[in-house]
Write a structure and sequence with these properties.
The complex is a heterodimer of chains A (297) and B (458). Chain A has 297 residues and is an all-alpha fold. The longest helix of chain A is centred in the middle third of the chain and has 34 residues. Chain B has a six-stranded parallel beta sheet with strand order 7-6-5-8-9-10. Helix content of chain B is 56%, strand content 12%. Classes of the chains: A mainly alpha (297), B alpha/beta (458).
Chain lengths: 297, 458
Amino acid sequence: MSEGIADALFYLTVATYVAASVLFLRFLTRGKGDVGVLGPRLIGAGALLHAGHIVIASLVLRRCPVEGIHFPMSVASMSMCVAYVLARKRYRIEVAGAFVAPLALTSLLASRFVGGGEEPGARIKSAILPFHVATNLFGVALFTLAFSAAALYLIQERLLKRKRIDGVFKRLPPLDVLDRAEHRFLVAGFPLLTIGIVTGTLWARHVEMGAPGEVLRAVFGYVTWLVIAGVLFLRAAAGWRGRRAAYGTIAGYAFSLVVLMIYLLRAPQPSAAVADEVEAPATAALALGSAEASSTP
Amino acid sequence: MTLPVVVIGLSHKTAPVEVRERFASGPDVLPEVLARLTARKEIDEAMFLSTCNRVEVIGLPKIAGSHEESVQRASRAIREALRDHIGASSVEELREWLYERSGEDAVRHVFRVAASLDSMVLGEPQILGQVKDAYEAAVAAGALRSHLSRCVRRAFTVAKRVRTETQLGAGMVSISSVAVDLAKRIFGDLRDRTVLLVGAGEMAEAAARSLGQQAKAVRICNRSFERAASLAAHFGATAAPLDQLESELLISDVVVASTSSKSYVITRDLVKRVMKQRKGRTLFFIDIAVPRNVDPQIHEQIDNAYVYNVDDLEHEVAENMKSRQKEVAAAEKIVEAELAEWVKWARGLNVNPTIVALRAKTKGVLVAELERTLGTRLKHLGEGERAALAQMIESATNKLLHAPTTRLREAAGESDGNDLVRAVQHLFDLPAPAAQEEEPAKVAGKASAGESEERLAN
């Protein structure tokens, strides 16, 4: 019964995100539709359904939603939508939904259908892990918004430099509003990322991990932190605004995505599998909706 | 045949701002340009109009041969004068930018320009003032004297009618208001932004009016500090001399440039220095001057600095103009009605000398006969009786010539009007009208009739 509800909520969330994506893209490309009210409402409704799905799925699985990677990815995309709904009016970035909705959708689908990595076993579980994952995923949610604002800024700036000030230009938020929103999301996400990096370092020491994928993941994590720290520092010290800051933000976000991709696509680790043989081999796909997953001993 | 007025020029519709600025002339060089035009033997009268969106010469050819030949000669002369004006190597070099109108089309064009129907911002009020300035300069230079002067004055009437009888000029659409809209799309809100006006002319005043209520602060930087201070006092702004431009750019976000300078007032190097000190904060330039005041390289080469000139705002303006299309139709009707009146008057120029001559001849004959009789058989008549006879001659002339005069005037607008004129000249042995002008003829007619009346009274 609960599995059925979780599944239904999952597909309803997907449908809502699809509807929001279509609405926003239609507005951007053709100038049709009301994204000022309907768009954020659709994303808000999607986030509610998404939260319902996460709660039901975690109850069914009796699993903390910030363990592993697939489940947190789902939580991250929901957090991103919540952050968008809360921030869009204050920063007047309703159109950022054009990035938020498809990214939330992609993240939600990826959390269920992409990758076959093992969920964390008892050996690598630690009290730090949920904290590490939670701060990182909220940081990623904010960076996604910063990325959306940066991407919109680059589009808007390009149109303005090319003097094409009709059509799409009129549908996007003002240039300075985007620049400011991007900076604020970055500033808000950076402490979370810093905590994530520190806790990640401590956790890695605790479990003494040394697999190439894990090293790569850590390296990209540090690079992400350095890039975003660099963007923020150069903005404050050297007046890096506008286009340069937008490119820096996009680069930082791209590195954080690489970290996520390494998590998602990591190969099954024999050592971990042996060590965790007492742990249920629940894959991400199973964790997020499959009825069989919850019944596995 | 109506008057062969010729208009040759270029506007925002035919030439980009970088071409228009080569032709643009301030009031200081206007006498020289007009002298160059009137020195040409092919041109009888001329006016030179130079605004940020158009530069054109309105000319009346000297009639020698047919009207068509006169127009062709005048057209060539105007093109050569324009070539010399910009220092081009040949007339051919200008061909792709210039438009030409003649006859009724030229007069319609003059009416439409004055009524702001050919402006980038339909119904904008500045153009009428600019046409008036050009008219006064031409009159002062002796380049406008008679028929063309009347044509331009008629254009003022058309403009006033359009303004009072339609809503074409209603609302807030102007280059400045469009520029404000664009600034808002860059900054979102101007309430925490500083606007700098470089120049303190009419356009700056319009910009101050549009921006004053929306921006946090307005600053005015001008070569003449007194003028800047006077404008600033009017709009609650702050004035600064032009040599403080760099420090003003540091604290401003939107810059509206509208000086009459012939070279760039805001250069790339200046903005490069300023942007370093501003730590990359966005700077938006709206250059509504022609010739341009802001180096366009700033837009291409400097990050976070944007330069828009009048041509760049054209599309935006066109969008704003859509709501005015209904008013445009009403204004065009006024133009056509006034044009019809003008054509009637202009065609009347052909028959008026004949009518005046016919009237003078008829009255002259009657008065001469009466004088002879008064000198002989009616010698005994007193002053009162002589005056009554003079009155009778006047009434008889009027009654006798009423029908032919009316028919000649009616025929003036028809294709066979000239045939009738020639017939009357032939039948009554009147002088050919080519050498006659309407006004002098009227004066001559009045003078001859007056002299006869005096003789009659004595």
